[in-house]
Amino acid sequence: MKSNENNEHSFSLATETKNILQKHGIRLNKNLGQNYLIDDYKRKKIINFANISKNDTILEIGPGIGTLTIELSKKAKKVVAIEQDKKIFEILSERIEEENVSNIDLINDDALNVEISTFSKSNKIVSNLPYQISSPITFKFLEFDFDLAILMYQKEFANRMIAKVGDKNYSRLSAMLYFKTSIEFLDNISPQSFIPQPKVNSAVVKLTPIKNESFFSNKTNEKDYSVVCRAIFPHKNKKIRNALIDSRNILGYSDKKILRDLLDSSPELESFLVKRVVKTSPEEILELTSLIKPILWG
Predict the structure, then answer these.
(1) pLDDT tens per residue, range 258-289
(2) Could you tell me where the DSSP H helices lie in the chain?
(3) Helix axes of 256-264 and 282-296: crossing angle, nearest 10 degrees
(4) Distance, CA of 231 to chain centre
(5) Which of 113, 128, 246, 268 has the fewest CB atoms within 10 Å around its CB?
């Protein structure tokens, strides 16, 4: 019985979505991340994951025609929705007006260019993110203080977010997010839940920022840690020494021999340099950063 109910809900949302798009002559562009959720069962799950109350202000990136937006507005105090596509923005504006919804602030802009002060008006984030901006928008979220985020990503990206040290998906992304947020995998979503159907599976993830923890003494140290991660992870199956040398340009060096001699001059670095990148924890990378900073950058 439950399966039939799910199919019925999916059909009704799919029909509604197709009718709206057809009415306005919209052809969705997968290359722009325009894959609209048409599975009402999954929509309900995503919204329920956020545990929304009338005290919450929700930030949504890429609302599209309002698949999540309007339902979110029924539960929240306010929804701040940022849509870049002008035509889609106009369609959603029309829907909001037709349904007499008064608690949605709709912004026509590129979310990556929007001032962080706009984001900080919200305490929760719920979004089916455009996949091509997954990384930069996630790090932008983490620049402001929020309670939780329920976000849909490409499954492969989500796997890299939650990967542990030594996993095949352990990456720069894993290491960079490690000190900033707790990450919980919530649900799989198949291509059949969208129109047009993407070629990849999707996943719903919960982010909870790590608060009251200071792993970096200042922004400069965080920047240095980021540079080291950017240098070593393209060569994650190599030893750290070789990875650093191979990425010497990122570290500000052009001469391989000079960098090698500097690295080999410090006995404190020896135990780090012989480790494979994929087997090196974020804590160890942070310690490595503190050791090589005076050696490489003075």
Answers:
(1) 999 999 999 999 999 999 999 999 999 999 99
(2) 2-23, 40-49, 69-75, 86-98, 116-119, 134-141, 155-162, 172-178, 219-232, 240-246, 248-251, 256-264, 270-273, 282-296
(3) 110
(4) 21
(5) 113
